[in-house]
Amino acid sequence: QRDENQLHAFIISNIKDYAECLIAVEAFLPYVDNWATCDQMSPKIFKKHKEELLKAIRIWIASDRTYTVRFGVKMLMEHFLDKEFDSIYPDMVAKIRSDEYYVMMMVAWYFATALAKQYDAILPYFEKQHLDKRTHNKAIQKALESNRVSQERKDYLRGLKVKQL
Description:
Strand content: under 5%
Radius of gyration: 16 Å
Low-confidence stretches: none
Shape: globular
Number of helices: 10
């Protein structure tokens, strides 16, 4: 089953028509039951349809399904941290509250990547502690492990970790 799902995700990622690809993603997401299948799925056609993709992302991150939320955050991370960056996107991710480990880990990964790509815009999320403590610390840990964050910034981030009970 898992191998079939991996293959399914790979095939979906290569669909060249946006509408067809979106339909396939929507139909497949309820069956995604692990992080590997979720993270592997990265439709190439999404790069050319950012505005429409954003509408879908908003729906995905509001889902009650772990891997649908994870996929939505991953799409924000892949497509909206560079030229298309806007502060509304990390706000969307920061509002996600989930006890699901694989959602929390994706939110942490999103913010660690965002620190590497949009440091000045993302730093206040840590200075003002906009994330739950666990996600906050995990994102900092991931940023500390990144080669894309300078040593000076790592030293500062290390001081922003919060104590957990």
